[in-house]
Amino acid sequence: MNDSTVERTVTKIDAGQVSEVHDTMAVEEPCEIHLSGEAVAVTMRTPGNDLELAAGFLFTEGIVGAQDVATVNHCGNTVVGRGEEFHPENIVEVRLIPGRKPRRDVRRHFFASSSCGICGKASIEAIHVNTAMAADGPSISAAILTTMMDQLKPRQNVFAATGGLHAAAIFNVAGELLVVREDVGRHNAVDKAIGYALIEECLPLDANVLIVSGRTSFEIVQKALVAQIPIVASVSAASSLAVEFAAQSNMTLVGFLRDSKMNVYAGAERVIGK
Questions:
Q1: What's the rounded Cα separation, in Å, for the pair 162 and 164?
Q2: Concatenated DSSP letters for the chain?
Q3: Is 149 inside any structural domain?
Q4: Annotation marks residue 116 as catalytic
Q5: Is residue 4 part of a domain?
Q6: Could you tell me if 114 and 183 are in contact, meaning their C-beta atoms sit under 8 angstroms apart?
Q7: Residues 162, 220: one domain?
Q8: How many domains does the chain have?
Q9: In terms of domains, do 192 and 253 share one?
Q10: Is residue 250 located within the same domain as residue 152?
Q11: What Cα–Cα distance (Å) separates residue 231 from each residue in 18, 140, 236?
Q12: Is the pLDDT of residue 119 over 50?
């Protein structure tokens, strides 16, 4: 057991047989994100890789640029506010390079649930004003694309223990893994992976692929576009808005990536050997 999991005693009913058993569960706790001393967001997440989560969240929400961040650290003091006590391990402070300012108004506090992320985003047109469309290329072999899901599955360690987490992974088009991150929220897993790339100065990711373990929503595709990831693939379905946004953004969107099968919803020209 670690900070990402907790054990609870549960009542198990199996074919009418009742027993008390220990169950390993994924942890869900609030993380408060501060930007240069100001609390700007609270997101419900699975503890772990919180610095990456904060950096990735602020970047993919258009609040900071890839070159704006100076430091990302846990706060050293307990903070009490809005009737809740936030312990230092649940508060992340992001500091900008001197002279840099947030790229959008952060006076309105964000709240993100683990299930749906930030609600009430602007229109697709407004997002495209602030985010460049994906560049043409690169291409990727369908065979290599299918191996990425195979590489992701054995690295979902907390999911294997709990059955309760989503995963996001970033690969290059040769099928080489850059990072895998897990979280109770799909969008958080993506923010952690992209936050890793930001902190490690790997952005933009314009020759990379984002793989997610669940379905693909509009928000997942939008976050990938901010990082300039041209190809997004998932093990399950894509929503209609995700497909529309990917097509309008010159992105490739793949769903039901299982075994040697896949549905290419947008940008099929990038996939070789269809």
A1: 5
A2: --TTEEEEEEEEEETTEEEEEEEEEE--EEEEEEETTEEEEEEEE-SSSHHHHHHHHHHHTTSS-TTTEEEEEE-SS-EEETTEEE-GGGEEEEEEPTT---SS---SPEEEBTTTBS-S---HHHHHHHSPPPPS---EEHHHHHHHHHHHGGG-HHHHHHS--EEEEEEETTS-EEEEEEESSHHHHHHHHHHHHHHTT----TTEEEEESS-B-HHHHHHHHHTT--EEEESS-B-HHHHHHHHHTT-EEEEEEETTEEEEEE-GGGEE--
A3: yes
A4: yes
A5: no
A6: yes
A7: yes
A8: 2
A9: yes
A10: yes
A11: 47, 9, 15
A12: no
Task: Determine the Cα–Cα distance for residues 232 and 251; give it in Å rounded to an integer.
Answer: 8
Which of 40-49, 105-114, 222-231 is the least confident region? Answer: 105-114
Cβ(253)–Cβ(229) under 8 Å?
Answer: no
Cβ(131)–Cβ(226) below 8 Å: yes
Same domain, 178 and 222: yes
Q: How far apart are CA 41 and CA 24, in angstroms?
A: 29
pTM assigned to the model: 0.88
251 and 144 co-located in one domain: yes
Q: Which of 75, 116, 119, 202 is catalytic?
A: 116
- The token pair at 148 is 């990425």
Task: Please give the pLDDT value at position 274.
Answer: 62
Name residues whose C-beta falls within 8 Å of residue 14's C-beta, 6 or more positions apart in sequence.
Answer: none
Q: Which pLDDT score is estimated for 106?
A: 73
Same domain, 112 and 181: no
Give the integer Cα–Cα distance in Å for 117 and 109: 13
Q: Encoding tokens for residue 242?
A: 């995700």
Q: Quick check: 51 pLDDT over 60? A: yes
Domain range enclosing 200: 140-272
